[in-house]
Structures are given as C-alpha cells and as structure tokens.
Amino acid sequence: MSEDKDVRTEFGEAVNMTAGELEKWLKTDESRRAGQHSGGGESVGHESGRRIVTILRAKKPDLSEEDEKHMRKVVGYIHRHLAQRPSGDVEDTTWRHSLMNWGHDPCK
C-alpha cells in the first residue's frame, strides 16, 4: 500500500493543474496541436490529459491498478520533459503545451 501512496503523492506533486483547468485546456487548438500524433489522430499527451481529468475527479478508493500505472507514466513524463526545458520565455511554446496536456503547467 505504501507504493500506492508514493505514486499518488508524486502524481499530486507533478500534476499542478486542476481537473477543470486541464479539461478547459484540452479544448484549445494549442492543446490539440502539441505532442506526438499517430496517424493524424489524437496525440498521446492529449489522450493522457483526458485520462488525468478522470483520475483527478475519482475518489482515491476508486482508483484501479491501471489508473496507478498511468499515474506513474504521467510522473515519469513530466519529470523527463521538465529536464528538457528550453531557454528563454516558455509561455507560448510547444514544450509548455505538451506538458500542460499531461497536467503540468510550468508557468504556474
């Protein structure tokens, strides 16, 4: 059980957007353009963002092993992506937009 708490704690620290903020962001053109698209469809990050909204709105006892697995994936992505921060103002960059799709706004 402590492993579950660890991933939940790390997820809570890495994801700094609320479910409402993330849901609103995912509706923007910038969100839809950011990230890797396979076959012209939805990007991996955009799809992840929709799942993150569901996780953020879920009660902790209702989280599945698959949810916790996704939470670990989110934490890993955010940590790796933050390590690649470009120089200068990141306000309107694809780098920031990709991170926001994963629930982290580096400008917060």
UniProtKB/TrEMBL annotation:
List, alphabetically, the Pfam families matched: DUF3140
Per its UniProt record, what InterPro entries does this chain match?
A: DUF3140 (IPR021487)
According to the UniProt entry, its GO molecular function terms are: DNA binding
- List keywords of the entry alphabetically: DNA-binding
What are the start and end residues of every segment in region (Disordered)?
26-50
Which residues span the membrane? none
This chain belongs to the protein called DNA-binding protein
Q: Name the source organism.
A: Amycolatopsis thailandensis
